[in-house]
Write a structure and sequence with these properties.
- This protein is mostly helical and 174 residues long.
- The chain has 2 domains: 3-69, Winged helix-like DNA-binding domain superfamily/Winged helix DNA-binding domain (Arc Repressor Mutant, subunit A, Orthogonal Bundle), CATH 1.10.10; 74-164, no CATH class.
- 59% of the residues lie in helices and 3% in strands.
- The protein is built from 7 helices and 2 strands; from the N terminus they run H-H-H-E-E-H-H-H-H.
- It has helices spanning 10-26, 31-38, 42-54, 71-95, 99-109, 115-137, 159-164, and strands at residues 58-60, 67-69.
- Strands 1-2 form a two-stranded antiparallel ribbon.
- It is elongated and about 50 Å long.
- The two termini are 29 Å apart.
């Protein structure tokens, strides 16, 4: 079973990403911290966390009651971060939308992308970013046909390596 089989809502994704960010940054995540970070009540956070526990994405550490992502939850966070990163750079660098719009739209779309689409999207972007410059040099593409991105996709062997490298929720900066 994958998390995408359980359909994550946009807000569920934000809870997962916040738990991940808090755990990576502070070493722990509590309901209070999540509520503060997302500017929500502890009650609404508790309800959402219980739903994520039922989906097998989050659990509590036995001794401390701190929240942690399960292996499935951790994999899902990396998949979501990868999708968001790819979408952001595609929209900003390839499509040419404003950076603020690219950030907002990539956040809205990230959890909707299936793992299959995410892998194929990575391969598509990598092929464009890593071969188009060479093709335009030999005259197979018009000079105005450029696909350049600040994201160094050529550095990754495949989509799995790219997903593995996703650490934060700001496009590989953390």
């Amino acid at each position: 079973m994958t998390a995408t089989d359980t359909e994550l809502s946009h807000s569920m994704v934000h809870y997962l990403l916040t738990i991940h960010k808090l755990k990576e940054g502070r070493g722990y995540a509590r309901v209070t911290d999540i509520a503060k970070d997302l500017d929500l009540t502890k009650g609404s956070v508790s309800t959402a966390i219980n739903n994520l526990k039922k989906k097998g994405l989050v659990m509590e550490e036995e001794d401390s009651k701190f929240l942690v992502l399960t292996d499935l939850g951790h994999d899902e966070v990396h998949r979501i971060l990868s999708s968001r990163t790819l979408l952001f750079y595609f929209l900003r660098d390839f499509v040419g939308v404003d950076e603020e719009v690219a950030e907002k739209d990539s956040c809205l779309m990230e959890h909707l992308m299936s793992p299959e689409t995410s892998h194929k999207f990575f391969n598509f972007m990598k092929k464009l970013a890593c071969t188009c410059e060479d093709l335009s040099k030999v005259g197979k593409l018009p000079p105005e046909f450029k696909f350049q991105t600040a994201l160094d996709l050529c550095a990754y062997k495949d989509a799995e390596a790219f997903m593995e490298d996703q650490k934060g929720d700001k496009y590989l900066e953390e």
